[in-house]
Design brief:
Layout lengths: L7 H18 L25 H16 L9 H23 L15 H18 L5 H19 L11 H9 L21 H20 L2 H22 L12 H24 L7 H7 L2 H17 L1 E4 L2 E4 H14 L1 H25 L7
Antiparallel strand pairs: 1-2
Length: about 375
Amino acid sequence: MAKNGRLVSLDIFRGMTVAFMIIVNTPGSWQYVYAPLQHAKWHGCTPTDLVFPFFLFIVGVSMWFSFRKYSHELNGSSFLRITRRVLTIFALGIFLNIFPYFDRDYSTLRIMGVLQRIALAYGIAALVCLTVDRGFLWIITAVILLLYWAALAFGGGNDPYSLEGNLALKVDQAILGSKHLYTGFGKPFDPEGLLSTVPAICTVIVGYYTGEILGKGKGSKAVLKTLVIGAGLTGLGLLWNKFMPFNKPLWTSSYVLYSAGLAMLCLSLVFWLADVIKFQLWGTFFLIFGTNALFSFFLAGIWTKLLLFVKITSDGEKTNLYSFLYENFFAKVAGNMNGSLLFAIVQMLLIWSIGLFLYKKKVFIKL
């Protein structure tokens, strides 16, 4: 624990997650990406598919520490804090979807997104965790995941976990409308849609429970407990995968348990290194990211969109600055695959440098 009351391991783990998020989101070319840095095509789980649930898990852990000032009770002050954060983060997500095309056709604006899911999952999970006895959180989590499994299994088509036949798509089409959904799968389908946000709430709740273990536990005992529970959740997720496949776009129940279990295992290791034996030097780089995590992610999105927005002429043809930099510098220096990875690492380092400036100025932007 740092002198300012922050859990050092949590900041380091959060920073590791954000750094990886930026790298997987900004390859020089999507044609040249190493397999571990790609999402699974549909079913399955790659290292990249763990990034978002890890971040939601971290949101839950952070929630436990931030709500100590409210005695973990829902009152006027805590409700105001939750509401403010939900509205702020959701609004920033909408802004990111719009930027920089403010004169666009808003009838086709995508409503959901990564930040929007963070906002909703955080808000609902916070209300649950502050109003329900913490001894019942596992029961609520189990009920939500089982009901979601049943909803997808019986509410979809002949292939309920397919892109075309899943219930999550039907719900999003009915509530949001097809024109307001993500189109990156070749048809309107939002991987951060409304129904699939429900199981994501459980990811946050597991994080909150983990925060309590680390916050109240003592050193190695807390590490051992999180290791055991994390291994158990991972195993349950692997078992459930035989009946309900891992699927990040649908945020399937098996995927929730598997990713949350792995997040617990990873955090317990970082906690042991940074907060138990006080070996923190290795994590200094990530600590800087971790203290302004959401802001760094938002800034990375803005920066990437600016690079794509700026058009220049190269060899008589118009291209965007993003592609120009990759093709004329990174690909020529390191080749297509390594150049694409190098480009992503440089983008991450640029955002990190801004984070370093804020860190040195002791500026922590809370969204």
